[in-house]
Amino acid sequence: MFGRLLMAMLACAPALFEPVAATQSLPRDLSAWSVDYVVIGGIAGITRQVTVASGGSIVVQDRYAADRVEGHVTPDVVAKIAGFLRVARDEKAPTGPPMPDAAGVGLTVTASGRAYALALTPQIAAVLDDAADKAVDDAVVGEWWESAWKLCTPAAQLAAEDIDSPIERLVFEPDGTFTVTWMGGGARTTGLPHVSIPDYRGRYTIQPRSGSIDFRAETGVATPRDFSGRGTLRIKVTQLTLRGVWLGTRAAAKRPDICELTFTKK
User: Fold this and answer.
1) Does domain 142-265 fall into CATH 3.40.50?
2) pTM for the whole structure
3) Among 38-42, 54-58, 60-64, 79-83, which is the least confidently predicted range?
4) Which of 77, 88, 109, 188 has the fewest C-beta atoms under 10 angstroms from its C-beta?
């Protein structure tokens, strides 16, 4: 039922979610395919869409962490999906009236221009959920620079003393550590080779399905003051937006009235 509900919702959803074709009977000799896994939050509509292709690409879009995350899954994930498709069953036709506000999940596979609604199993749902979470985690890893910020309360003009130094380098490592270096901050060793030292470092955790992020500052050459590490994140390809997070004030006389920080990936 939810596969057909999914198709109906995708057909009238915003351009963010591409519509799919009508259902057919799934062949077993698929060489190229694209799987769409969608979580439907009842009256809230589509809350997460995960698309994985046989070539290994993955796209995640949801209402929480990912405006759009693009990445690649491991060959093991592709093999698990391909194995599922070889034995997958068509979704059963609904037996009652349509329920537009129903919550649930839907799975379709597209091959040779045709879409097929499939019965979802807990095992393949877990594979796709885990792959989507990892894609969000992987998208965060790397080096970012502060490219924009948004005030909590809009102001016509800010005094110079109310503006803090931007963050030149926010680096997320795969091991769950991060570093912060403000513009004009950090330090460099005097010996050869020269080594750049960030202002401070710490650890972070992400919950992709809720969009939450938690920073914990630890050590550095400049201890961050008025640090607030719990908030939410949104990723749109090469842009990362943090809300409710403040990574410390460096130069301003007091913490600026900023509720949102946007970073661009280097």
Assistant:
1) no
2) 0.84
3) 38-42
4) 188
